[in-house]
Structures are given as C-alpha cells and as structure tokens.
Amino acid sequence: MRFSKERITTITAGIIDQLQTHGLLEVTGSKERLIVGLDKAITIELSIEDRLNAEVRELLKQYDAEFQSGRADYQKMFTMVKHKLVRERGITL
How many CB atoms lie within 10 A of CB 9? Predict the structure, then answer.
C-alpha cells in the first residue's frame, strides 16, 4: 500500500474536517467512529491494487523460464496482464 495507516487517518480526518467546514457533513455521532469507518473503506480501496499486483505476480510465475532466458520481458508482461485484469474486472485504479 502506498500510504501508512497513520497517513490514511490524517487524510481521513482532513476530509471530514473540510466537509464539516463547508457545511457538507454534519456528524451526529462519534467523529472517531466515523474516522475509523472511513479509514477502513479507504484502506480497502487502496489495497485493491496491491492484491491485483500479487495476483499478476502469481500468474507470471509459470513463465519464469521465459523471463530468465530473455524470451519474454517481465515488466511488459506484468503491465499487459494487469491491464487485462483491470479491464475484465472493471477495476478503477
């Protein structure tokens, strides 16, 4: 993941503060509970690409011999497979 847990919490709190400042959000319950829930949602969204990258790496393991011998370019294949999965699954990165 590109952001630490602390950074996500800082971003989340900032979003909530800005929405409140502009009158777009009224927190009637616990602000801390709202932050925790939004942190979780953001973390899940950010981890989608991490899980996708891990899946692509796993799929490409079967071509290790081709990569080692130079018959295939790992980075090019990684990008192609990743883009294919993104299109097939309708993922927005």
Answer: 17
| Per-residue pLDDT tens digits for 32-55 | 999 999 999 999 988 999 999 999
Which pTM was predicted? 0.66
Q: Give 6-19 pLDDT, tens digit per residue.
A: 999 999 999 999 99
| Structure tokens belonging to residue 92 | 């927005």
CB-count exposure of residue 12 (10 Å: 0-12, 13-18, 19+): buried
The span from the CA of 59 to the CA of 70, in Å, is: 18
Q: How far is CA 24 from CA 13, 14, 18, in A?
A: 14, 13, 8
Cα maximum dimension of the chain: 62
H or E element, residue 25: none
Q: How far apart are CA 27 and CA 37, in angstroms?
A: 13
Other Cβ atoms less than 10 A from the Cβ of 82: the count is 20
